[in-house]
Amino acid sequence: MKKGLLQRLDEGVVIGDGGFVFALEKRGYVKAGPWTPEATVQYPDAVRGLHREFLRAGADVMQAFTFYASDDKLSNRGNKSSAKYTCRGINDAACRLAREVAEEGDGLVAGGLSQTPTYLSGMSKADTQKEFQKQVDVFVENKVDFLIAEYFEHVEEMVWAIEVCRKSGLPVVASMCIGPDGDLHGITAGECAVQMAKAGAHVVGINCHFDPFITLEGLRKMKAALDAAGLKVHLIAQPLAFHTPDAQKQGFIDLPEFPFGLEPRICTRWDMHRYAREAYDLGVRYIGGCCGFEAYHIRAVAEELAKERGKLPAGSEKHEQWAGGLKMHTKPWVRARASRQYWENLCPSSGRPFSAAMSKPDAWGVTAGDSSLKQKTTATTEEELTSLVKPGKVANGK
Amino acid sequence: MKKGLLQRLDEGVVIGDGGFVFALEKRGYVKAGPWTPEATVQYPDAVRGLHREFLRAGADVMQAFTFYASDDKLSNRGNKSSAKYTCRGINDAACRLAREVAEEGDGLVAGGLSQTPTYLSGMSKADTQKEFQKQVDVFVENKVDFLIAEYFEHVEEMVWAIEVCRKSGLPVVASMCIGPDGDLHGITAGECAVQMAKAGAHVVGINCHFDPFITLEGLRKMKAALDAAGLKVHLIAQPLAFHTPDAQKQGFIDLPEFPFGLEPRICTRWDMHRYAREAYDLGVRYIGGCCGFEAYHIRAVAEELAKERGKLPAGSEKHEQWAGGLKMHTKPWVRARASRQYWENLCPSSGRPFSAAMSKPDAWGVTAGDSSLKQKTTATTEEELTSLVKPGKVANGK
Amino acid sequence: MKKGLLQRLDEGVVIGDGGFVFALEKRGYVKAGPWTPEATVQYPDAVRGLHREFLRAGADVMQAFTFYASDDKLSNRGNKSSAKYTCRGINDAACRLAREVAEEGDGLVAGGLSQTPTYLSGMSKADTQKEFQKQVDVFVENKVDFLIAEYFEHVEEMVWAIEVCRKSGLPVVASMCIGPDGDLHGITAGECAVQMAKAGAHVVGINCHFDPFITLEGLRKMKAALDAAGLKVHLIAQPLAFHTPDAQKQGFIDLPEFPFGLEPRICTRWDMHRYAREAYDLGVRYIGGCCGFEAYHIRAVAEELAKERGKLPAGSEKHEQWAGGLKMHTKPWVRARASRQYWENLCPSSGRPFSAAMSKPDAWGVTAGDSSLKQKTTATTEEELTSLVKPGKVANGK
Amino acid sequence: MKKGLLQRLDEGVVIGDGGFVFALEKRGYVKAGPWTPEATVQYPDAVRGLHREFLRAGADVMQAFTFYASDDKLSNRGNKSSAKYTCRGINDAACRLAREVAEEGDGLVAGGLSQTPTYLSGMSKADTQKEFQKQVDVFVENKVDFLIAEYFEHVEEMVWAIEVCRKSGLPVVASMCIGPDGDLHGITAGECAVQMAKAGAHVVGINCHFDPFITLEGLRKMKAALDAAGLKVHLIAQPLAFHTPDAQKQGFIDLPEFPFGLEPRICTRWDMHRYAREAYDLGVRYIGGCCGFEAYHIRAVAEELAKERGKLPAGSEKHEQWAGGLKMHTKPWVRARASRQYWENLCPSSGRPFSAAMSKPDAWGVTAGDSSLKQKTTATTEEELTSLVKPGKVANGK
To answer: Which residues bind Zn(2+) per the record (chains A, B, C, D) (predicted)?
Structure first.
């Protein structure tokens, strides 16, 4: 009998997995733009393989690949996935794949909800909750170990999601894609945490949209507000693996590099050592990753916390800590790099002399209710596209 | 009956696959340092999965994962892989995995040799060729479609490898890990090409060690020398997917970021469009990648050359060319990025304000025969390690 | 009869001059380290010449070059200037040079005080005010138009200076070298402004230590606090002409580049157009510069505010606004740059591929009273120097 | 009786002065665009003051401020200087100012010629030499110590200038504004040197257009060619004080930052120590600077070569070598920077997170004879200006 999420959090650290949409996009199984997870039905081997990488890297949670797997999203702007594969079919396959790999180790399975086009289109609470309920029904049927409502930009919608989740009787994790500046309606990060906890979430925190260190700034504010309100819940961090010091309120979506030019921002494994340590010291006990987090990033988290967890991940078979494997390298000057000091102090160069350190984000400042955010089942036309490109707006180039 | 390599090259473009050691290291199946491919025996699903990604991305060649799979390498500096899995076992498994995936499409299987510790240790031609012969025997038994001798720093050893390969009767591809400045014994890139062609290679060129654009500079020199010598062979390019404008003669190995801090140097898919076009225009007909090249990079090569090849890769099902999929994105300002002009002009920022554009390479200047390069079956001791770290040498950090 | 400072501020904008110590250091007339102004006695032509450049650039104020011209500073750490030239002699010469040039136009003469080693050494209010009084006596004898107490890191000492200045009956300007985070004793920028105003300063604000834009952030806080306290005073900004986004509380002194490697941070004239506009819009009416500000920076301020002032500076004879003079350039592509749009959008490259965008400041966190800050008349010995260099501390280099 | 140039070069090192047009532009006395030196008549104090700074910094040569002081240039594109001040008047005043300051020390006076609009307009040798002759006549009347023909982009025009100069009987220095790639007609740097020497120049070399280190690369080629041709002449280097690793054949004029955004490229004094040492080691004996070189840069050259010259410059009174003056700084962490090691290893940050390391030069590729380069006495019209701005061309900004 496996221990449940809450018991594990009470006793120590739970390591989450990394991001699926970005990793599978690069592998050819997810389309950037809609970002929907019909791959669970179309390419189950690829999804299973990625779960296995994270399990091996030390993840305690197999999060079913159900990001954006709601009917309204699967049929947005010309996406035909809902019609071809059904929301139910995609969610169901995702749960089975996650369970299969979880059983290969001591993993837990989580079913995940995320924000909906229905809410962004300004529709009602009932309409929005109906979308959530359809997914939760499948999760309950598949006996997932807990639910995770993540990637919400508005705490109002998040609270609606938590309400739906709590009715299942399962533990509920609630994680918003916000930074230290709070949600897109201007509600502070601290107040978001308080509302999530009061709505019944057992674990609250932040995922996606910002790099590990900005995410932890947000969590610091959440923790202070929760303490001030006398609320006892666990904290979760699942940040990007991209450096975003220049992102504004809306996170990496606004950066000119999103989503096809983010490479120079990818965090190293050493960044993740630092992230894991700082998160742990802050009191975060559910520590994972989101977009950009690959297996080696999760492994770095697990290696940093090896002492606290009393074990190394399976994947450390192929990774001696702090670059120890380089002692086996042919070239003597690479062997000379087999030390913690070397890598902890490295400030890696970009090899891109025409690129700058920071970008100026797009900052359209539109949010839930704005007509440009409304769900549409038809594809974007060339005319609509042209109307979006601001005259005089140039790319980040030279 | 599939067309063979040489016929394909005569008729058009052959797209190679990407890099295995770096991709599988991140996934947890290869150890950085020895970089040896015992994963073919230990984790066949992971290797098969990566082959499939490249096939789907448009690769015409499944290169058996036999990099550094020679007995001397598998037992170098404390590596026990040779003893546990045998050189023969690893090579054999590699061929079978590559063949299995090749049969799922129209792929060819290549068996690969690379430079040996035997040569670097200053041993004889006979000793070195014996290492090669052991691998070639397995490739021939497995009926690979052609042989590829790649990642050689010295043309002398390369010629020895070609001699062994030619005895098999199979087409021979010869690819050195050099840049425009030539091999590590000071032989020019042009002269290397001439020697490879005269030794009997059907295809000659460059892989690894430098970014796509520096690699093409090297190929330009090779082409000029081959033309001047009246030699008719095909050209191959399989560069890094890391920007290396600052690398010196020995390539990215010398950069302070090698191998665990290369993230900010990773090429975007748009860099690969440019690479594919420039390679094609130069007359290179075997166009692939090496370390750092993932499926989405190969897909970009295949998409750039879609017209020349008369087809898109299977993986383009999940990737509308030039960011077309972004038309389905929720945020209007991201939809506004759904154009070639946007991405072609983007100069991506690093998000790393404390990092510079370029690094100063280590430049130890030792090469074949130097005692520090000699094969050793025992592990590197702490004393040896300490002796390698130059006093006063600091990392690239601040 | 010239209008006085306060009348001018009530009626419009007053433009200050730029920095003397940095400009004259580069010209060979001031020594970096002590930074004391004995040049007024030694090299009057050089000082006069610099005043003239600022007058011509549009400055309304000739600030007598009396920075750090107090007895305690002139005899600190091996400096012999006090003995050779006397504090009185230096201050007196400074006033006469400023007056001479001011009379060539419509300029006002200001006598300036700055923070003292006496205070930093933890000595008494009486001791500190005695140092100030000696300078003020000379200023009054020389009939300066107003007094300016500037470059104070602690508002406590500033208040003492204001008290001494007010007794003269002259208008008093009070300007601290702090940023948005307040003074070195942890007093907020807003509270500093309030204390300065309450102590009787007619104009309060910020000079030195931070770039124009961070300085304006600090002024925004000062303004808010003054408004909240119902205090009516004018505002002054005299920032650095160096970009300092990475400076912490103690400003550019802490940056590894101070004082001999600041070149890549120097602001362009276009930065100063933006500064002048933003300062004016914020309500700042005394707009000048400090270290790094040269005549062309002041001219840019005057050109940006030409409409508000109803005139261009004399120096615009040699500078058509917004690069208009480039129409006379030989090369056609340089003529093509003769536009505001070109220069307003330029993000100038550094030409330094091994340098980063930002530095990590030294942050010793010592302040008034710390033994390492105490005044000493003897020179720093090699032993003292060695004890200051932290083991393992490396420069910002590679 | 002062020693002449050639004797001084035979016996040791001659230090040149720095740049006048850029320094005086910033001070308000020269207009960028035409860059002509009527300030010698209009603002003699300012010109005299700058000469004095260079003399004090260690310069052995006072180069009369006659850059571009030819009739055709003084009346180009709306410039009225020729009419108001006459070519003769400007050159005459320049000689007298240089002589006056030279007499304050052991300085030599040089009269300078530079390339002409007449040549660029495609006019005849006779026409071009006539322009030169007018200036040389004034120099001879003023008894300058030697002539310097500098800032020539085409060796053909340079040879014509040397011919005119040689007839005066004075020593002739010939310095082209080219880099390692040679002149704008495609003649190699080595061949340019040979032609200059054969035409009778006593000293040949390079000034302006490139940074010190690229300039020295060019001189290395010149030296090799002169040696190969058995020609014995002295070498001169007078580079920019701006980093230009990204400049192409035409130098810094092509960089998007020219001339009003070059600040982040300004060399530090430590760069100049390295420059002086490398120039000396290469055998260059006339070592000075051009645009961007201020007194403190020249002083750094003189300090680096103090041992070779047996003396420090007068200006070192205010500059203890290798930052020794910082021992007198108040802050202990700044005192800790009083060492050669600190400054030699510093890689200064730009404080500009939105700027890149390198720019892409404009590269119009037009040269002598092209209609867009022709001399015109009328001002550039708005229509002409518009026709120059390439559609779609954006500044280097973001």
So the answer is: 208, 290-291
Contact between residue D117 and residue D108 where contact means Cβ atoms under 8 Å apart = no
Domain boundaries, chain A: 5-321
Query: How confident is the model over C318-375, as pLDDT tens digits?
Result: 999 999 999 999 889 999 999 999 999 999 999 999 999 999 888 787 777 788 888 7
Give DSSP secondary structure letters for B65-79. Answer: S-TT-SHHHHTSTT-
Residue of chain D whose Cα is closest to the Cα of B360: D347
DSSP 8-state class, residue C105: T
d(C-alpha B121, C-alpha D248), whole Å: 44
Give the H/E segment covering residue D111: strand D108-113
Weakly modelled stretches of chain C, pLDDT under 70: 390-398
- Which pLDDT score is estimated for D390? 63
Which single residue is written with the structure tokens 């295995």? Answer: B20
Which backbone phi and psi does A232 adopt, to 5 degrees? -110, 105
For chain A, give the secondary structure using H, E and C: CCCCHHHHHHHCCEECCCCCHHHHHHHCCCCCCCCCCCHHHHCHHHHHHHHHHHHHHCCCEEECCCCCCCHHHHCCCCCCHHHHHCHHHHHHHHHHHHHHHHCCCCCEEEEEECCCHHHHCCCCHHHHHHHHHHHHHHHHHCCCCEEEEEEECCHHHHHHHHHHHHCCCCCEEEEECCECCECCCCCCHHHHHHHHHHCCCCEEEEECCCCHHHHHHHHHHHHHHHHHHCCCCEEEEECCCECCCCCCCCHHHHCCCCCCCCHHHECCHHHHHHHHHHHHHHCCCEECCCCCCCHHHHHHHHHHCHHHHCCCCHHHHHCCHHHHHHHHCCCHHHHCCCCHHHHHHCCCCCCCCCCECCCCCCCCCCCCCCHHHCCCCCCCCHHHHHHHCCCCCCCCCC
The 10s digit of each residue's pLDDT in D353-375 is: 999 999 988 878 778 778 888 87
CATH of A5-321, one of 1.10.10.10, 3.40.50.150, 3.20.20.330, 3.40.1740.10: 3.20.20.330
Q: Which chains touch C (3 or more CB pairs under 8 A)?
A: A, B, D
CA distances from C69 to A288, C82, C136, C236 (A): 59, 9, 11, 22
Q: Which helix (H) or strand (E) holds B193?
A: helix B189-198
Q: Which residues of D touch A357 (CB under 8 A)?
A: 353-354
Q: What is the pLDDT of residue A336?
A: 92
pLDDT at D318 over 80: yes
**Residue C398: its chain B contacts at CB < 8 A?**
356, 359-360, 396
Q: What is the Cα–Cα distance from B319 to A27, expressed in whole angstroms?
A: 11
pTM above threshold 0.80: yes
Q: Is D87 flagged in the annotation as binding? A: no
**pLDDT tens for each residue of A339-393:** 999 999 999 999 999 999 999 888 787 787 788 888 788 888 888 888 887 644 5
Helices (H), C70-154: 71-74, 81-85, 87-102, 117-120, 125-141
Across the interface, which of B79, B262, B393 has its CB nearest the CB of A328? B79
Helix (H, G, I), strand (E, B) or coil at C2: coil
Q: How many CB atoms lie within 10 A of CB D344?
A: 13
Q: How far is CA A139 from CA A280, B153, D349, in A?
A: 30, 55, 53
pLDDT range class, residue B304, cuts 50, 70, 90: very high
The whole-angstrom distance between C275's CA and the closest CA on chain D is 16
Supply B142's token pair: 């497995």
CA distance D51 to D298: 12
Distance CA B87, CA B70 (A): 6
What top-level class would CATH report for the domain B5-320? alpha beta
Q: Predicted ipTM?
A: 0.95
Q: What is the mean pLDDT of chain A?
A: 94
